[in-house]
Design goal:
Chains A, B, C, D, E: It is an enzyme of class 4 (lyase). Chains A, B, C, D, E: GO terms for molecular function: fructose-bisphosphate aldolase activity. Chains A, B, C, D, E: Belongs to the DeoC/FbaB aldolase family. FbaB subfamily. Chains A, B, C, D, E: Its EC number is 4.1.2.13. Five copies of one chain form a homopentamer. By secondary structure, the first copy, chain A, is α/β, with parallel strands linked by helices. Chain A has one domain: Aldolase class I (TIM Barrel). The first copy, chain A, has an eight-stranded parallel beta barrel, surrounded by six helices. In chain A, strand 2, helix 6 and strand 3 form a beta-alpha-beta unit. The model of chain A has no long low-confidence stretch (mean pLDDT 96). The interface between A and D is large, with 43 and 42 residues.
Chain lengths: 304, 304, 304, 304, 304
């Protein structure tokens, strides 16, 4: 499988990385139906940690089985499958070599009493499970952000040395941020930028609203029209080294299919690299999920 | 890319290996034009170490450039490319993600005064260069065989822990073995068996002759007709845990194309998994080499 | 399954060992049809390393498959199965929990030019493969004996710390020992004693002849009648801390069934703990092998 | 490039440092248009971490790209470029060997709920990225100052052993310090002194006001006229081992060009070694920034 | 100092190396009067080890002082200075930052009783002394070549991780090589190739004669005219990954100035990257040496 010029150009931006990391990034970028386009769709299934099994899977009970998600990601032609340690251990041998996996190495849960996550996986786990990348969540704004940053700094250095890529989920939360502010444009761009500064290869953030949260930042956003989501995406991508890093956006809570499609079009039109889409797929019946993912692939290919 | 039942069955034989190793074996087995068939062709380019650059490359000067071999292996749709440290360092970024690589971690040369090799690469090198496997030569029969076995035991254990597969080149040589004996059937089967006992995932041996070298073994081979090469291949495969391990055969010195094709047919008919074919390809002009490899792929696919 | 008083008494002799080692010794002693009797039969399959595959398996080709030996040992109700790394890797998952395994961690071969073995497995391998013990060969008398002793000292210490038992194969060979002397009574007793002194939990030696090899030892053996094999066994057992250590005897090359049975009766009557019996079983057709092992079990149970 | 006597004299003050550290200090002091003068201008771009991307770069959108800053520093003939991990990873290969870099190894952000920073880079990162120095911020006065000091003590020791220089940003903040007090002369001199005591090779502080914050220190400053900024600079330099350490001053928030020039003249006249100037350059259009830096170089050369 | 396109193109060939290594290679390639041309002249002073002080320095007693050589290399505008541990320790602080240094980490001497070298420096030494590279000699052909290769494999891996480049001196010697054969074209090309395969960044060999030493290689060289030294250089460069690696040639024993100049022209015309020239300079009076080096610089610049 020859790398496309588009993917070659993306890989060239990771100029300090060893060929091992580039190989794993290439595996993700050349995988599935979007392989070679520079776009990607990742299936993340860590909602069991975040919200518990019933809230995550009872609407589609097949999804209690980790194999279900592997198979869904493969059958839909997605780029990668991301999950915590347990689910990858439960399927990594069966699906070895079929889809790149991302080991989510920290996790929170609904009952957490601090805005933080536990480190629940390691780079050694990623190696023995054949993963292409580790995934790590930071909560900029929280009281624990410095510690979280130090955790990923250490894990990411270890991962880079052994050829494993790093994906950072950057979710502003806690501290003085308002609830609305977590999704504000300035906040989202800043959160994405911090992940980039920390050395992430792939940055994962939420689609931002048109709100501006920070008083000191209002001036910089005034005078521009931020009502179009594609423009907001473009600003986030710009905030990730002017497009030198891969940026993917999460779909958030399950919602109507049309909204999901419009999000993807906006990500595409704003220059984002793709979607991390979990609940909106595995909480639908498999046929519907496959149809939705098929349509999303089409959108990222520019066919829709 | 879904694993085929054939490849799934092969992977199932590696029942003690972690998913990382299985993932890398799957990458090799699903790569290129033979992907999914359970057959494989590997391009090895360590002849520069063994015989020097002029004897290896002067007949086809483009082959002095390590990129040439990467591109040849990719364009021919091969399963993997094997080389020492230097050539992989010289191309691993350019060709990241395009073909699985095998880091040859020990090497000899024409001027060696002992039957041994130097360890010239490490598992860490394999990780940073994004390799799927390490390759190691043992010389059963030589005075240094115990030390060589201990070297690969250590490196292989390290590799298995981090999801890197192990290929052992098993070449009888030295000690009390006669020159003819190095290629004898009983010797080749024994050498292959030793590599298997050492825990190799892929065993690489030479195609054996019909000679029987060991006095004590003659009785076991008498009464059978070993004149057909396919039968000899079958015996070597049997000696590798009755087919539970992947066995590939080397073509030896450059020779006529028809002989190369017949070798491949015999390997295929005897149940071997494929060829490691170096000099017979890169010492031909690229067009001829591609034509030859195309024909070999066809043979392994059973079309010829 | 409750430990029998007989086994409890044996375990009590290992008074410095941690409960992990005792647990693994108990697993062997409580396994199979001899479970609880204090007697044991171990199936060792490392002849492929020692003599090559054809000399080992061609007489019974099913035996090329490592699974064959696992199944034979299980179906015959034996106490443990011993083999090098490769064969255990090839079956350890399939047969997990069905029979205790002993990882043979060093190995020689027919072409060796020194009286030595290569270390081909590790305690880490034993742990990841779920083995109950490691097995190690020493060649008292050889030029390499000190190095071999140091190797097992190191590995055994590591094994004991993690609850893995140690079996030492003690085979006098090389140096100034005559060929006949290798089997002499004084030599066999001395070799067994050295293994015991090295801290082996289980000592494995050959059945000794009535010869006395060492000039200096002749006086001590004169005046006694050593013509009965059971008496010679008793002397070897006595040399292993007066029965405080488990001693098993090998049957040597394949031979007539009656000779095998008589050996077992002598081992039993001389107070030996059992047999390690390889070629005499797997080189027979499976039915014959099972019948022979059934009879041996009966002998050790005192029924024959 | 021969070291000038001025630079030689500066290097001689670092009498306990190994030649590796001296080499890296020399690289900074011999670089660019001020090379050899003993003066230096460093471009620091960590404002993205501190204030977010929009507040840092939206006024000059080219500056979203990390390459922009490398190129600006090179084209302006500056002495070094300082940034966090991500931006250096994004440009270190492209600009290898063109300008000394300083890896900022800790970072805060606008949403921090404590006066502290996260350690976001390591000495190993500095080595693999070819950096001349690490940069570290301490907040004397904050509740976390002891921990911050211990972090830099550890990193600095590691850096010194491998020939990497240490730059400490010393910013009084938190605890009982008043907001005005953070810039007070006594406080700035004390903060600079603490960095010096911690073993920094280069000390970076803010230009102090004429305020005196500490009751206990007022007596020592009374009777002198501190209205001239150059005198205040001289006092800070004096506080850094009487000029035995390199001291550079930050320009603070973006402001009028004339103020920037006057600051530089005062730093020069007070015996300071130069400026760390970020926002005042990259937040201006590139042409204006180059013109400003050209003028600053002239000032430090005594031509203006 | 902006990298020239020529140097950028050379650096791009080191595609697996981290920016630290690239930075140090760039430092060498941008240093001195040949900076930016892709050509380089290195001053090596390890003859004291090889031949003793009197044979090395008595003809020009100033050269007993290590500072003499630093100053000579700087004043002549050379690219780098290479020496063992002691001389670099004696001058690294005085000349910090003035010229890239190469720590020769192994050394032989006139009284050696084996064809081998002692490892006399480490990567840690290179870091604390501010060196750009380590230098290591291998003796292909010698009985100790495998051990030497294993030494540099280990040191080079360590060096690459911390951004230090590797120079390999490859000198065929010992074993079955004839004395004339050491300089034979086929032997020199093979030796250079081995250094390249081992992962050297810079390969240093002797200028080869037109002899062909190896029987098996004669056919490959027949039919071409190897009488022109430039053609022989071209073949050696070709043997180093077709020009993807920097190759420099040593001048050998002190000889007439015209011969030295002609060598340089041939190196240049054959596509070599430059000279390592020791005895031919420091064994001449300083003025003569500077004049000679000036002329050599001119030759490499194509002016002569």
């Amino acid at each position: 499988m020859s790398i496309t010029p588009t993917v070659k150009a993306i890989l060239a931006n990771y100029e300090s990385d060893n060929p091992g990391v580039k190989t794993n990034l290439a595996r993700i970028l050349m995988q599935g139906r979007l392989g070679g386009t520079g776009k990607l769709i990742i299936l993340p299934v860590d909602q069991g940690f975040e919200h518990g099994p019933a809230r995550s899977f009872s609407v589609n009970p097949d999804a209690y089985d980790p194999h279900y998600h592997y198979q869904l990601a493969i059958d839909a032609g997605l780029s990668a499958y991301a999950a915590p340690l347990g689910p990858l251990e439960a399927g990594a041998a069966t699906f070895a070599g079929q889809i790149p996996t991302i080991l989510k190495v920290n996790s929170s849960n609904s009952w957490a009493t601090s805005i933080d996550q536990a480190v629940t996986g390691t780079v050694d786990d990623a190696l023995r499970l054949g993963c292409a990348a580790i995934g790590f969540t930071i909560y900029p704004g929280s009281d624990n952000i410095f510690e979280m940053m130090e955790e990923i700094r250490e894990m990411s250095a270890e991962a880079k040395a052994v050829g494993i890529a790093t994906v950072i989920w950057s979710y502003p939360r806690g501290g003085n941020l308002s609830k609305d502010g977590e999704l504000a444009l300035d906040v989202g761009a800043y959160a994405a930028h911090m992940a980039t500064l920390l050395g992430a290869h792939i940055i994962k953030v939420k689609l931002p609203s048109a709100n501006i949260e920070q008083k000191e930042a209002k001036a910089m956003y005034e005078g521009s029209d931020w009502s179009a989501q594609a423009d907001r995406v473009r600003h986030v991508v710009q905030s990730c080294f002017a497009g030198r890093r891969i940026v993917v956006f999460s779909g958030g809570a399950a919602k109507g299919a049309d909204a999901v499609y419009q999000d993807a079009r906006d990500i595409r039109d704003g220059g984002g690299n793709g979607s991390i889409i979990g609940r909106n797929t595995f909480q639908r019946p498999r046929d519907e999920a496959l149809a939705m993912l098929d349509k999303l692939v089409g959108i990222y290919k520019g066919e829709d």
